[in-house]
Amino acid sequence: MSTYDTLIIGAGMSGLAAGIRLAYFDQKVCICERHSTIGGLNSFYRLRGRDFDVGLHAVTNFTPKGAKKGPLAVLLRQLRMAWDDLALAPQIGSAVAFPGIELKFNNDPKYLQSEIEKLFPQQKDNFQRLLDKIAGYDDLNAEMFTLSTRQILGETISDPLLIEMILCPLMWYGNAREDDMDWGQFSIMFRAIFLEGMARPFRGVRLILKNLVRKFRELGGELKLRSGIAKIHVDGERAAGVVLDNGQELAAKVILSSAGVVETLRLCDDLSSAEPARAGQLSFVETVSVLDRSPQKMGYDRTIVFFNDSPKFHWQRPHDQLIDVRTGVICSPNNFRYAPDEGELPDNMIRITALADFDRWQALSPEQYQLEKLRGYDAVVGSAVRFVPDFRSYVIDTDMFTPTTIRRFTWHDNGAVYGAPEKRLDGQTHLKNLFLCGTDQGYVGIIGSIISGISMANMHCLKAGGG
User: CA–CA separation, 303 vs 334, rounded Å?
Assistant: First the structure.
């Protein structure tokens, strides 16, 4: 039986980052991934001669090259990577679009502030109060993390519409709770999107994953693809090792799982002694439209548009329908400020994400599934073009993924993109040497996931034996 210092479940962003960090300290590390490809939700695929990203719209927490502060700078130092390893191109500019009003923002926080002062002049001082509260948020205070964001916003901002417009992009990019949001998650996402900003590598998520895997392997790390975990064997208060789907057994001093809290605990053969965890409910569909011209040539110059078709933001699982098209995210990977020497992307694309119900998609027959994908594409795009130029006559190719696709590649119950609503900020489980990283630890997004892997590796796996 092979024995490792740390065994990591899942080759997503957090798992790969944790593996790199530990390999720097000469740990014997193995990452086990159920699928034949890496990345989890933030991955990529090739279809009909075209490359498609999955998950990644934009990297949040952007800071320019040379910056010494912020999560991106921390990540680069901890993994000993260069800024050019990510080669991030900043967004052109994005917006939150509600009926009759559009709140624009970019990577300059002062621009957002000026837009709010223009659209909501009575809220100038209140918005500054909100900024002060976010600046005072203590990342280490677990009690502050779970406070109600809606309550805090209601006590700070007096215009209900501005509250909903601020919540919309932050919930879309990192909230596992329905209707409300943990104050800690809100503060993290506010900083990531509005105070730091968004960017994208010219080559998309492939570049990030390629460089993470390359560095992990150069440091001697072992990556096992097509090696799903069938069971975590428990001996007393510790995890002794794992059994793979093919029956192979691996032993480890510490196990770090990015599979999600519900999914990880279910693997343990002493599940009855674990503290119960509730699975997330929020899943998505996403349409991809390939155009015969650049989005800017047809009048779409936004990087991302977060839209909602009424003054009240809708953030719930749509139990009575396959897709809820009332709200969504529209993104074009073409609308970033790429370096002149990189040229233009090989394809012109617009991606649109909408809320969806996993159970209803899962219950469809194969024939119904394909039919509902066609209907769903039309419904999602039809809803989105109320807020951006109608691009449907320029479409030359399409694709769409659903909650069942997300379930297949992340293994999350309900295809829950942001995992369980209750996060485990310390990464601990009921076992002294089994820890969580990634979505259910509490950090989201590309940079957040990588930081989660680094911080949990530092906190738990660099201690002899864990615990």
Answer: 8
Phi, psi at 32, each rounded to 5°: -105, 125
* Span 404-431, average pLDDT: 90
**31-42 average pLDDT score:** 88
Nearest CA to 462 out of 25, 13, 81 is that of 25
DSSP bridge pairs for 69: none
CB atoms within 10 A of CB 36: 7
pLDDT tens-digit readout, 297-309:
999 999 999 999 9
The amino acid present at 171, given as its one-letter code, is M
- One-letter amino acid of 317: R
**Cβ-Cβ contacts under 8 Å for 130 (sequence gap 6 or more):** 153, 156, 157
This prediction has a pTM of: 0.94
pLDDT at 464 over 60: no
Enumerate domains of the chain plus CATH numbers.
Answer: 2-55+204-278+421-461 (3.50.50.60), 90-203+281-417 (3.90.660.50)
Measured between alpha carbons, how far is 124 from 130 in angstroms, rounded to an integer?
Answer: 10
What's the rounded Cα separation, in Å, for the pair 461 and 20? 12
Give DSSP secondary structure letters for 258-300.
-S-HHHHHHHBTTGGGSPP-PPP--EEEEEEEEESS-GGGGT-
- What mean pLDDT, rounded, does the chain reach? 93
CA distances from 291 to 45, 295, 314 (A): 18, 8, 29
d(CA 50, CA 292): 14
